[in-house]
């Protein structure tokens, strides 16, 4: 049985960042899901259970015995062990695409001290601006050569809570 690809976007951006990959995989005959994590910064910490719930909820449409391949980008990589352990589906593999790696044992900070120092002054009323507003236009523009895609990514971005960056992956789950 072919595994279903579950593409998990960074909590700082939105699911459309995976759209080109999802389209290529679907065109090649694979089933693909891209759960939205846009809501996970809402409410009080801890945030990671909402990430697990979002992925698990998206998989409700898939028969329980169907294997999945989890594919994480950026900081979503930190949450793959928690996602994996929270699913009712067998996980065939986990793939990290330019993704942060969780610690083998114990909690993993979501952001290193130097990133917290960089982002701290950008927070307003405890909320960070959109990810594309963290960087200079000259740095962001080359990442999105298609203007329509770029606009979609900009518009759908969540405004993550600044406290989310101070959270930690719960540890000590392992990928297995």
From TrEMBL:
InterPro entries: AB_hydrolase_fold. It comes from the Bacteria. SUPFAM superfamilies: alpha/beta-Hydrolases. This is Alpha/beta hydrolase. It comes from Actinacidiphila paucisporea.
């Amino acid at each position: 049985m072919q595994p279903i690809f579950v593409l998990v976007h960074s909590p700082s951006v939105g699911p459309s960042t995976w759209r080109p990959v999802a389209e290529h995989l679907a065109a090649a005959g694979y089933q693909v899901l891209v759960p939205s994590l846009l809501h996970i910064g809402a409410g009080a910490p801890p945030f990671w259970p909402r990430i697990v719930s979002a992925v698990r909820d998206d998989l409700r449409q898939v028969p329980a015995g169907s294997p999945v391949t989890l594919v994480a980008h950026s900081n979503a990589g930190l949450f793959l062990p928690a996602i994996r352990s929270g699913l009712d589906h067998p996980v065939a593999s986990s793939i990290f695409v330019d993704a942060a790696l969780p610690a083998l044992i114990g909690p993993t900070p979501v952001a290193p001290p130097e990133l917290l120092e960089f982002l701290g002054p950008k927070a307003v009323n405890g909320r960070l601006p959109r990810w594309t507003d963290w960087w200079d236009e000259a740095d962001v523009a080359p990442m999105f050569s298609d203007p329509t895609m770029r606009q979609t990514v900009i518009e759908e971005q969540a405004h993550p809570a600044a406290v989310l960056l101070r959270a930690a992956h719960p540890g000590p789950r392992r990928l297995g």
